[in-house]
User: Which sequence fits this backbone?
């Protein structure tokens, strides 16, 4: 009987040590780690009237009164057209209505007058809307996803020469209340000027990139349902 009590005491002590170790590990983890632990494995999108969009994926500059408005050489990427508008997600807000949106050569940031994408018609919380010009070139249609899940996905970005490239990423967490997608990306991929790059999973559009987190090699994007009407 006495021996069994000793065993119980030893087991209890070991459990306490393990719990202390776990608590210590949690306290030293990052906010990103905590988010991953609490994230659902799958999320469902809010209802939207848009079932598919046409991808543009162009580096752009916005010109107002014949003067360049720029940040780090470019304002990011014009993502897609939908409901008769060009969506430029992740761009600086409060762009002057009527400003011209031009495709920009990423290697030297030059503008060709013939590469007019559209004209700014509105500013939204998550980016700029433009009316497309007759010269706007679209690349392909893509279905808007109804769900998204943790795991492999693709970020459709552009390389240093301005070519459209598929970069593998891994969706690691969702924050449903803020409509955010968190993911990791290869170190070889440069994130500079990539705001607006589409996030694709299972051949469907689930979101749009808008920046990096404080964690190295981690990115964040909006869910597509929080962008479309």
Assistant:
């Amino acid at each position: 009987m006495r021996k069994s009590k000793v065993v119980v005491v030893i087991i209890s002590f070991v459990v306490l040590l393990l719990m202390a170790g776990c608590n210590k590990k949690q306290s030293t983890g990052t906010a990103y780690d905590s988010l991953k632990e609490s994230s659902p494995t799958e999320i469902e999108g809010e209802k939207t009237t848009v079932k598919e969009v046409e991808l543009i994926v162009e580096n752009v500059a916005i010109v107002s009164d014949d003067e360049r408005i720029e940040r780090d050489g470019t304002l990011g990427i014009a993502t897609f057209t939908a409901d008769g508008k060009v969506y430029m997600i992740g761009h600086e807000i409060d762009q002057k209505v009527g400003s011209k949106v031009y495709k920009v050569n990423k290697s030297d940031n030059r503008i060709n007058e013939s590469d007019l994408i559209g004209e700014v018609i509105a500013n939204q919380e998550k980016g700029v809307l433009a009316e497309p010009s007759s010269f706007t070139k679209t690349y392909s249609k893509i279905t808007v996803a109804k769900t998204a899940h943790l795991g492999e996905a693709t970020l459709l970005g552009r390389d240093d020469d301005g070519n459209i490239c598929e970069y593998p990423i891994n969706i690691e967490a969702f924050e449903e209340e803020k409509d955010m997608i968190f993911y990791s990306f290869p170190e070889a991929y440069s994130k500079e000027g990539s705001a607006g790059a589409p996030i694709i999973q299972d051949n469907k559009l689930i979101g749009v990139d808008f920046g990096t987190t404080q964690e190295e090699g981690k990115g964040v994007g909006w869910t597509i349902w929080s962008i479309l009407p």
Summary: Residues 1-28 have pLDDT under 50 and may be disordered. Residues 55 and 136 are 11 Å apart (CA to CA). The helical segments are 2-28, 31-38. The chain is about 15% helix and 50% strand.
